[in-house]
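Support request from a user on the community tier.

User writes: "When I paste my structure tokens into the form, the page sometimes reloads and wipes my input. The last time it worked, I copied everything first. Here is what I submitted, just in case something in the input itself triggers the reload:"
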């Protein structure tokens, strides 16, 4: 092998080594970038999962509050109806009481008049 052939082989070997080093560095950078992106994706997935869990909790709390609100409205409507019925009973008893008081007064007046006539 001549010096020139040897020189060409060494030059080719150097070129191959430089390409190998360049490709190895590119592979390392790509691997680091991939690892970084995977870690970022994992963090985003965990954040999304956490947010979804919070949304589910908030929806459940809101749903429960709405159910309790409907229950309160129903209770109030029922109690107002009961109050109205009781107020009507009170009104009727008041009318009855006035009539009975009038009858009692009239009965006493009649008795007093009767006794007054007897005494005359």
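"...and here is what came back when it finally went through:"
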């Amino acid at each position: 092998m001549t010096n020139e052939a040897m020189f060409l082989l060494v030059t080719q070997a150097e070129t191959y080594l430089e390409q190998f080093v360049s490709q190895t560095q590119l592979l390392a950078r790509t691997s680091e970038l991939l690892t970084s992106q995977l870690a970022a994706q994992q963090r985003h997935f965990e954040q999304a999962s956490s947010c979804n869990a919070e949304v589910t909790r908030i929806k459940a709390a809101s749903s429960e509050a709405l159910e309790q609100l409907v229950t309160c409205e129903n209770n109030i409507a029922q109690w107002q109806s009961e109050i109205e019925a009781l107020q009507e009973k009170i009104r009727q008893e008041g009318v009855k009481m006035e009539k009975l008081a009038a009858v009692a007064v009239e009965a006493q007046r009649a008795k007093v008049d009767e006794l007054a006539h007897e005494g005359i």
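Agent notes: The reload is a front-end session timeout and is unrelated to the input. Residues 3-119 form the longest helix (117 residues). Residues 1-87 form one domain. Escalated to web team.
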